[in-house]
Amino acid sequence: MASRRALSVAVAVALLAASASADSWLYDKFTTDGNVRADYNAQGQQVTSLILNQQSGGAFSSRQKYLYGQFSIQMKLIPGNSAGTVTSFYLTSGDGPGHDEIDMEFMGNSSGDPIVLNTNVWANGDGKKEHQFYLWFDPATDYHTYTIIWNDKNILFKVDDLFVRSFKRYPDLAYPGGKPMSVHATLWDGSYWATQQGKVKVDWTHAPFVVSYRGYNADACTPNGDGRPLSCPAGTDRWMNRQLGGAEWGTVEWAKENYMHYDYCKDGWRFPKGFPAECARN
């Protein structure tokens, strides 16, 4: 009986180790900076935690750069009072003045107030294209899936099974389509900006703040050098030609009507000389 029990335990440990190895996405695919912790849950999924205290935040950045793809991750945000903090999942070509970037940022709030999801697109260094939404659930009680689909026609933002935004490409306007981008996740002190335009700062008595990530997936093309075709996974039509259908546009309108917190195309104070050209076309 004892030997049978020992064998069962050994098999269970081996299965968990194999599952964990198969799901070891953090150190295989990313470099890390600051306060980052990697563990495994009971199902063998790797769970990566970013930790913010007064000394440092945390971040991970993909080793690989991509040009078009579908990128998703599951996140569980900071519980309770997260005012002043910023959690992110985004793509960027770098920090230069002409960089491209696609953002999903979660701006912390005081206890009881909804978290704000900020979506933004930068092309050739031009940003200021934010759509912000109050989340319609508590993102700290469980994991939710956040997805960016990026192709040469549009950029789609998705929360769980619901599309909340489509940013279209127009031939005469800047669009992030020529610069490969890497994937990043960060947790940092955004007190100067994140909550009520910086009026509410981080309350460090609640530190450390922890955000957990799991289930990362990049179904995407990689560049092979100047003048060479992209290296793409099989079946890229899953996302390469993806645009919204009628019902999916319905969820975008639902999010706008019920949960939109800010629309750059309605901010006349910010654009006194006229709104960006795409505002009249969407």
Automatic annotation (TrEMBL):
Keywords: Apoplast, Cell wall, Cell wall biogenesis/degradation, Disulfide bond, Glycosidase, Hydrolase, Secreted, Signal, Transferase. Pfam families: Glyco_hydro_16, XET_C. Transmembrane segments: none annotated. GO terms for molecular function: hydrolase activity, acting on glycosyl bonds; xyloglucan:xyloglucosyl transferase activity. Glycans are attached at residue 109. It is found in: Secreted, Cell wall; Secreted, Extracellular space, Apoplast. Residues 1-22 form the signal peptide. Its EC number is 2.4.1.207. GO terms for biological process: cell wall organization. The active site is at residues 101, 105. GO terms for cellular component: apoplast. Residues 23-213 form the GH16 domain. Contains at least one intrachain disulfide bond essential for its enzymatic activity. Belongs to the glycosyl hydrolase 16 family. PANTHER family: XYLOGLUCAN ENDOTRANSGLUCOSYLASE/HYDROLASE PROTEIN 8-RELATED. Catalyzes xyloglucan endohydrolysis (XEH) and/or endotransglycosylation (XET). Cleaves and religates xyloglucan polymers, an essential constituent of the primary cell wall, and thereby participates in cell wall construction of growing tissues. This is Xyloglucan endotransglucosylase/hydrolase.
